[in-house]
Structure formats: C-alpha cells, structure tokens
Amino acid sequence: MLAPPAAQSLRELAWDNVDSIPVLWALSRSPDADLALLTVIRLRAELGDEWAELDSTLRVDKSLRGRLFALIGSSSAFGDHLVADPAAWRLLRRDKLPSREELIADLLATVDAVPAESPNSTAMLYRAGISGPESVALLRKRYRDQLMLLAALDLAATVENEPVLPYQVVGRHLTDLADAALTAALSVAVSRVCKDEPVAMRLAVIAMGKSGARELNYVSDVDVVFVAEPADATAARLAAEMMSVGSAAFFEVDAALRPEGKAGALVRTLESHIAYYKRWARTWEFQALLKARPMTGDLELGEQYRAALMPMVWTASERPDFVADVQAMRRRVEDLVPADLRERELKLGRGSLRDVEFAVQLLQLVHGRVDENLHVQGTVEALTALAAGGYIGRDDAANLTASYEFLRLLEHRLQLQRLKRTHTLPAADDEEGMRWLARAAHIRPDGRQDAVGVLGNEIRRNSVRVRRLHAKLFYRPLLESVVKLEPDAVRLSPDAAIRQLAALGYVAPEHALGHLKALTGGVSRKGRIQALLLPTLLEWLGDTPNPDAGLLAYRRVSEGLDDQIWFMRELRDEGAIAQRLMIVLGSSEYLPDLLINAPDTIRMYADGPGGPLLLSPQPEDVARGILTAAARYDDPKRAVAAARSLRRHELARVASADLLGMLDVQQVCRALSSVWVAVLEAALRAVIRASEVERGAPSPADLAVIGMGRLGGKELGYGSDADVLFVCDPRPGEDETKAVKWANGVAERVQRMLGAPSTDPPLQVDAGLRPEGRNGALVRTLAAYAAYYEQWAQPWEVQALLRAHQVAGDEALGVRFLHIIDKVRYPEGGVSSDAVREIRRIKARVDSERLPRGANPATHTKLGRGGLADIEWTVQLMQLRHAHDVLRLHNTSTLESLDVIEQTELLDTEDVALLRDAWLTATKARNALVLVRGKPADQLPGPGRLLSAVARVAGWPNDDGSEFLDNYMRITRRAKAVVERVFGE
User: Fold this and answer.
1) How far does CA 631 lie from the centroid of its chain?
2) Average of pLDDT values for 6-19?
3) E strands, 89-212, in order
C-alpha cells in the first residue's frame, strides 16, 4: 500500500481520479509501491513533454503497467537506470525475449563490431569499430537495457496476471546474455590488442560454474578459462583485455578456476591443460569441470578442450578418498559463512543452494562414469537425469528441484533490489525487508498468515527439506544406510494383524501373516526395511484383484531377488515402482516368474522425464538387441538362450505396461509379434551358422520363414503360437534333394530348440498350415510350393495364405514366395463362387464343431459368437472377394484391412466399427485372461473373483466383472449380426 504522503504525488500525476483506478491498483501491488511512485515522479520530471505518452500508455496497457511497476518497485537500481535514460521505458513494451543470436548481434552492433580475420572460420571473433573508453559505457548501457527487459518480464506476475517465467528460462537467458556480453567484450579486446592486424592465434573462452551450467543469477561472477593456440603473450593480453572490458561493462569476469588458480598462467594451450589435469588436478577441479562449456571465441577449440577433459571428469570418482575430498570441500565452504549468517545465507548456509549443488555433483561424478545420461551441466537437468537413472528417488528429485528453484527465486529477487551480488536474507527483525521480498517473490497471504509469515514458513520448510535430503543423498551412502526399529514400538497381536489383513482385502489372512513373518523375519537389514515398507505395500495390494496371490508373489520375488541389493532400495526410494509392482503382482500370475528371471524390468516401473520407462524401448530396438545378443555365440544353444533371455525381459516389460494400462491392444500385439519374429530369426541364424561349421561349407540352400495367422498379421497375443511355413531354394550347383534335406534338418532343429521345456512362456513353432498339413513335408522348395498351390490348393489354404508374410530367414526368397502366392490369394477376377460357398461351409462347420466341449459360445474369445475367428473370417472373405480390385486389401493385418474396407465403402462405417470394436474387445479380453491366469486361455469365466480380475486387467473401470461381461457380450453380439449378414450375402 502507498504511504499517506503519496496523495500529493498522485495529484501531481493526475492519478487521483476514477479513470486512474487501474493504474493505482497496479501501483499498489508493486513490491514497494512508495519506491515505484517515487521513481515515476522522477521519470515524469526527466521525460518532460514526453510524459504524456507514458501516462496514456499506462492507462491502457495492462502488460506495461505490470512490468514497469513490478520493476521499479523491486529494484532501485533499475529505477535509476530508467531515470538516467527515461526513453528506455519503451523497451518494456516488448513481449518476447530476444534469442541468443539476437543478443549477440545487438551487443556487437553497439560497438560497431565486424567479423575479424582468424585462422579458424568457426571462431566467434569480431573486431569492434568503437574500442575506446566510450565502448565500455555503451556496452554497459545496452547490457543493462537487455537485463532490464528480462527483469520486467520476470517480475510482472507480482503486479498483473502476466505469465510467470520459469526459473530455467531466466537462468538460460541470463547465460545467453553473458555469452553475448563477453563476445562483445572480446571484440573490443581484439581491436585494442591486435589493432588492424589479423588475429594470429586461436582463443577459446570456456564458461565455468553457473555460466557453464546455463543457470546464472542476475548478478553473478562469470567464471572462465582460456585455451589458446599458441598460448603466447598476445593471447594472454587478449584474454586479460577481454576480462577487463567485461568486468568494467557487465559483471566480474573471474579466471581463478584455471589450472593452478590465480598463480597459474592465464592462458594455456590445450596440450598444457590436458597435461595438468592428468598429473596435478585435485578432486574439486574435476568437480568444477562438470560445468565447463565453450561460450565464445574459437568454439571448435573449446569443444576440443571439453572432449579431451571430460573423460577425466568421469573417472575422477575412482580416485582414492574421492567422496571424502568432496565432503571436506563442502564443509570448508560451509565454514566460510559466519555463524550468525548461516540461517540467512541462501547460497552457502545449511540447507542452502550449495547443499543441493554439491549433492547432485557428487552423484553425477559417482554414477556418470557408467551412465552418459548424467553428463549434463545444469542442476535441475542433473536431478532429472539422476531420478531417471534410478540413482535417487523421484519424490526426492522433485522435492529437491522445487526447493532449489524456490531458493534461487529468492536469490534473484534479492540481487535485483540493488543489482548487487548478495545471497543473504533480511534479518529476522527486518519486517519491511521481508515484506518486500515476499511481494517481489509473488508470495501472498494464505488466509491464516500475512505474506511475511508465509514467506518465513516457506524458507524454513525448504531449508529443512534440503538439509534432510542432502544428508540422505550426500552424507549417508545409500548402501550403508540402516533402518532402526524402535524396541518399544506398538505391535499388533496375531489376531489384530489377521483382522487388519482381512480388512485390507486378504481372503486368507492367516497365510498372509505367514508371508509377512517370512519377509520380516530375522535380524537382517532387509527384514527391517521390509517392515518399514510393508504397511504401504499391503494397502496397495489390498486394492488389487487378488491381494493374497499378490503377497505370495511379492514374497517369491523378494526371495528370488534376495541377492539383488538394488531391489529393496528401489522399493524404498521409488514410490511409483513399489505401487506398480504391487498392482502387477496382485493382478497377474503370468508376471511373477518373468520378473524373478528378468528382474531389471522392475526398475522400468519408474517414471522418466518423458513418461514411464516401461514405454521407452521400441519394438524395433528390442528386436535388434535380440539379434545382436544371439549373434555373439557360435553355439546355437547359447545363442537361443541369449535370445530367450531378452525375450523374457521384453515379455515382462510389455505385459507390465499392458497390465498398468500404458499400452493399447495394437501396441501389445505389435510388440509381441516383433519379439517372436526376432527370436525366430536369431534361432534360425544360429542353427544355419552351426550347420555351415559342421558341413565345412556354405548352406546349400536359401531358407525363408513365412509367418502365418496372427504372426503374419503382426497380431500375436500372449498365448499365441507362431504359425509358419518353411520355404527353401537350392543354390546354383547344389543337389535339390540334399538341399531340401538340409533345410528340413535346420527347420526341425529350430522347432526343437525353441519348443524345449522352459519356465518361460512357451515358444511353439507350428507348421501345421503347410501343404497337406502335418502329413506334408516340413520344408518345400519354392517351385514345389508354386506347383502345389497352382494345382491342389484348397479354399481354406487360399484363405490361410491371406495372412502369409515373410518374417525370418532369406528376405529375398520370402518376397519371391509372396509374389508366387499373390496369384493364388488375390486371383485375377476374384475368388470363384464355388470357393466362397466352400468357405461358408467350412465356417459353419467350425462354428458347430471346433468350439471346445462345455465352452460357452457367448464368451469364448476365439471361437465364440462375434469372437476373433468370426471377425477374421469376415475380413478374409471380403479380401477374397475384393482384393483383386482393391490393392490396399493386400494386407495381412485384420485391423488395417478393416480400415480399407471402411474407406472403400465395401461395408457401412457402422458395421466396420462393430467388427473393429469386437476384435479389439476380444483380443484385450483374451490377453487379460493369460495375464491373470498365467497360461493360455480363451474362455471368459463366469461371475466371480477371477472374472473381476480379468475385467480390471482388460481395462474395465471398476471391479464389477458382471458389467464387463455384459459389455463383452453386447459388443460381440452386435458384431455377430454383421458377420452373419456378410456370410449370408
């Protein structure tokens, strides 16, 4: 609020009337309204006749009011800057911050700089046309103008509802401005040192500290290091002159982080830098290099500097007493702060900015040696990367980030007040100073406390939070932490424990109690951690379809991973991992064994910067990984084992993401098909390699695997076998009989190896769709297939070929096979009416005979009414009848073919929608059955616990399995009507 003496000033400004209410309201919200009003009076006096323009603009321009009053009410320094150049108020009308390139161009133009001749064309070297003493004043003025615009946009939200600039945007813009400033300072230095001569050396300016990390304050020293080729006297003079101009015009330019500090040479060659860091550098110097960034000058040389030194940074953690050195440095920094200022010091005190920065840098140095994702420079970016890598808990990272940004906001506001380098909060008894800071930081009363009280609480809360998390992350290494249970803590009696478990949804609480005793038994550290985790885990399990099975599965997983140190750590520190694991274990019998055998999947339950890590791998990348891993082994058994291992991991990932609702049906089918194809390809390659070694000669034939059924359509489910055809083609000069015999041996061996008993979900390669079925030859030549299909193909075989697609082996041979069968499956003129009648007859027979005895035709997902077979047969009939005219129906995917049928109006849009909905619903239900029961199944259960579990896993929004079943039958019943209409035409 304005002080009473302000009334006279408002009358002088003619702001004491109704028309001025918006101006007065904005002025009153300024962090220091009296300071703002005083600055306006001074501006009016300096503007003279031009005051009217500012006055009229303030009355109509809300954004300008917010920026101007926030700025001059927060910063006496910027108020003085405006009064010295009152016309500069027009800069505040800009809505957008200039880019880095625009800032560089603006500051270079201020001194009429032009590109300077240099031995390296990539150098950001310019020669200033104005290089005398006046250049410093010109640069200072222009730098302050740009700084003022940023500050006004940053502060505007405190007065008007202007957009709030995120902390990272402010820090990066300040860094861009610093880069531009030193580029301009270097141009002046070039003019002064090199005169009109070409710049004979290469000089790179390396940003360090906050500038290197792109998180500068409004008022910061800018730490730099110089690299020159050659590092002669001229290079040293150029560097010194740049520092002198920069320090006079902009901010203190400090080169104390160079090798040997202030006692060392100002400029060194790259070779000299490398030699120093290899032999003499101390731990803190490598820590400082974390933030090194080429900022101006010869950027190519700067990148060479970074490329040469950063590998040393990431091996610094291997140095003796590394952690102790870092901790000792932190304590020394803390001891520099006088005791009476430690609670007010934002930067160096306890619970301060430096606590966060030191903790983050330590973790980066420790883990960055093996994880390149941690090779980032900004503190916030590093926290994000640490959380994504699982090195700190996501909640811890989020809390540290929030506290760090809050403390940096206060630091920025304190520095803006007088544009002085300060990090100290107002004293506890300085209520006016705290009130100003609260308003400048956009902190308002909360209904219980005034702004000063809210600010004080926020400062204390964030300081305590930083101290707590810093101690957790920095001083107590995670692997050495100990959980102490209080000996006099209240313990539930067995009866009370059973009652509580029953209340949480456990059907057999006595058994559940036995599992809990096994998990927490003994005096091991893991048992104590389990005791701390289990109350929350049990609550989450209580919300799953089968908490009893979930707890048993959790016990099995815990015991199976007993030697995996990370497991309990992840559960303790990552809430998302623990909760998702409980959902999975309490919902699925398919996943526990997979997770025990592919435990790294559990780590993927965490969230990354771009979302859940379960979604990060793409099927193509997984497939390449399987093939690469298998290719490392000459022994087919070991190659197949490697492929199986990665398949196991991928199945666990896909099933987990599916069960947690992160993948849709098509994504699941595509991923499962991709991993199946990759394993088949890996096994085939391994067997062929081994065969060639055994024969001592190349393969006598090319061999291709043709995917059929759901494999050919890339629509596999969890319980699907891989239907295939094997086709070979003898190579020139090879005996056909021997070549076919060799191909049969390879195919049989692939089937046998993949179908071998395993704890993993089965890998059955089924070649039953080959000519003459199981009585026919396992492998035929391309010519034999062509002859058979031309003379003997039955309608059902032609129909089966609609989903044939090359999936493994020799791709060229597979494509040739497809070209041959295209004449059969897409015959010119369309399929005959006799063939259509035969397909209808076979379909009727399938409907009446193939359904298992006792199965409910209304709820059998594969062969039931409106189930998968109905939809697929309908689509295939449409393909047989129309694919010769509609080339886009040459497609093995059911859903994609339905899209074409709709687009070409072969069926009504409504009918296609019913078929599509039924196929998706049945596929999702069938997959959910496998996930819940842990084995292939097609029949939906009747109402009860199992059906409710299937409903939940299938994505039904509640536990009412009967609703899910009713919805399923309604959708499939409508689809069946479309099927009958199509087949009855």
Assistant:
1) 30
2) 81
3) 114-115, 123-124, 126-127, 202-207
Indicate the DSSP class of residue 352: S
- Stated length of the chain: 985
**Backbone torsions φ then ψ of 640, nearest 5 degrees:** -65, -35
Start-to-end C-alpha separation, the chain: 83
| Residue 663 bridge partners (DSSP) | none
Q: Specify the pLDDT at position 499.
A: 42
Let me know: does 736 contact 727? Beta carbons within 8 Å: no
Cα 311 from Cα 915, distance rounded (Å):
58
| Predicted confidence band of residue 335 (pLDDT cuts 50, 70, 90) | low
- Contact yes or no for 628/618 (Cβ under 8 A): no
Calculate the CA 332 to chain-centre distance.
Answer: 37
Summarize the confidence of residues 226-239 as an average pLDDT: 95
Positive/negative CA dihedral, 77, 82, 83, 85: positive
Q: What is the mean pLDDT of residues 716-727?
A: 91
Per-domain residue ranges for the chain?
Answer: 342-354+373-480, 504-606, 617-825, 833-984
Backbone angles phi, psi at 787, to 5 degrees: -65, -40
Residue 480's pLDDT band, with cuts at 50, 70 and 90, is very low
Tell me which amino acid residue 204 is: A
What is the distance between the alpha carbons of residues 537 and 259, in angstroms, rounded to a whole number?
52
Four-way CATH pick for 342-354+373-480: 1.20.120.330, 3.40.50.300, 1.10.3210.10, 3.20.20.70: 1.20.120.330
Architecture of domain 617-825: 2-Layer Sandwich (3.30)
Architecture of domain 833-984: Up-down Bundle (1.20)
Question: Is the whole model's pTM more than 0.85, yes or no?
Answer: no
Fold agreement (617-825, 833-984): no
pLDDT of 829-887, one tens digit each? Answer: 777 888 888 888 888 887 777 788 888 889 999 999 999 999 999 999 999 989 988 99
- Quote the pLDDT of residue 497: 52
Q: Where residue 444 falls among pLDDT bands split at 50, 70, 90?
A: confident
> How many angstroms separate the CA atoms of 578 and 581, rounded?
5
**Which pair of tokens denotes residue 397?**
């990272």
Beta strands in 477-598 (DSSP E): none
Mean local confidence (pLDDT), 130-135 = 94
Contact 722, 765 (CB under 8 A): yes
- Say how many C-beta atoms besides its own lie within 10 A of residue 865's C-beta: 21
Distance of CA 719 to the CA centre of its chain: 31
What whole-number distance in Å separates Cα of residue 602 and Cα of residue 577? 7
User: Do 772 and 729 form a contact (C-beta atoms < 8 A)?
Assistant: no
Three state DSSP letters for 153-205: HHHHHHCCCCCCCCHHHHHHHHHHHHHHHHHHHHHHHHHHHHCCCCCCCEEEE
CA 78 from centre of chain? 40
User: Where are the strands (E) in 288-349, listed by range?
Assistant: 293-298
Residue-level pLDDT at 159: 80
Q: How far is 239 from 119, CA to CA, in rounded Å?
A: 17
Contact 14, 45 (CB under 8 A): no
What is the band of 470 on the pLDDT scale with cuts at 50, 70, 90? low
Q: In Å, how far are 79, 462, 589, 849, 930 from 137, measured between CA atoms?
A: 18, 41, 75, 95, 76
**Residue 573 Cα distances to 484, 554, 577, angstroms:** 17, 17, 9
| pLDDT exceeds cutoff 70 at 502 | no
Measure the CA–CA gap between 597 and 591, rounded to whole angstroms: 10
Read off the pLDDT of residues 756-807 as tens digits, 9 standing for 90 and up. Answer: 887 788 788 999 899 988 888 999 999 999 999 989 888 888 999 999 999 9
The pair phi, psi for residue 347, each rounded to 5°, is: -90, -45
Residues 768-779 pLDDT 10s: 899 988 888 999
**Whether the Cβ atoms of residue 613 and residue 607 lie closer than 8 Å to each other:** yes
Q: Which helix (H) or strand (E) holds 469?
A: helix 451-470
Written as one letter, the residue type at 845 is R
